[in-house]
Amino acid sequence: MNHRESGNPLPPRFPWNAGIVGLGFCVPERVVTNDAIARMVETSDEWIRTRTGIRERRVADPGTATSDLAIEAARRALQNAGMDAWELDLVLVATTSGDYIWPATACVVQHALGAQRAAAFDLAAACSGFCYALETAASFIQRGAMQRVLVIGADMLARQVNWQDRATCILFGDGAGAAVLTPCAPEEGILTSVLGADGAGLESVWIPAGGTRTPVTPEVLEQRSNCIAMRGQEVYRFAVQIVPEAVRAALERVCLRPSDVDLLVMHQANLRILETVAERLEIPMERVMVNVDRYGNTSAASVPIALTEAMQQGRVRRGDLVVTVGFGAGLTWAVNVIRWNRD
Ligand code: UT7
Question: Residue 278 belongs to what domain range?
Answer without folding.
Answer: 190-339
